[in-house]
Design a protein that fits this description.
This is Mutator-like transposase domain-containing protein. The chain is mainly alpha-helical. The protein folds into 2 domains: about 40 residues, no CATH class; about 80 residues, no CATH class. The protein is built from 5 helices and 2 strands, in the order αααβαβα. The chain has a two-stranded parallel ribbon. Strand 1, helix 4 and strand 2 form a beta-alpha-beta unit. The longest helix has 21 residues.
Length: about 140
């Protein structure tokens, strides 16, 4: 698991002071089990985590993932293709999360409603005489 946060370090920094020698001594003992093990950007963390998992699947488990479930961001999928973890023997497929697809569709519909409403177009509803946003 990759993490940019360690609750123990946060408490020790608060209680001992980050620049204190007591903190330095404590941190040397704590470092091997510290949960803060990633310092890069959060966007790249997903890519690095996928790389670790996919490489480990072959080395440790002798199994192969066949597809990657993605949120629409192809950085992770593209990185796995560039790594060529499984050589040419197996093609990795990309599956898209339905919740993210539904969210993009909903946003698109919402934007169309705003666009048509600004043009004074109605949906034919005699009571309200306007487009509805409830979908």
């Amino acid at each position: 698991m990759l993490s940019k946060y360690c609750p123990e370090c946060t408490i020790a920094k608060r209680d001992l002071g980050e620049n204190c020698t007591d903190f330095s001594i404590w941190y040397k003992a704590h470092k091997p089990e510290c949960s803060e093990n990633y310092a890069g950007s959060s966007n790249v963390m997903e890519v690095i985590a996928a790389e670790i998992l996919w490489k480990r699947s072959v080395e440790n488990c002798r199994m192969r993932y066949m597809s990657v479930l993605s949120d629409g961001d192809s950085k992770t999928y593209q990185h796995l293709l560039e790594l060529d973890v499984y050589d040419e023997s197996m093609k990795i497929s990309k599956e898209e999360c339905l919740n993210h697809v539904a969210k993009r569709l909903g946003t698109g519909l919402h934007n169309k409603i705003k666009e048509w409403r600004s043009k004074c177009v109605t949906n034919g509803d005699r009571k309200e005489k306007r487009l509805k946003e409830d979908f």
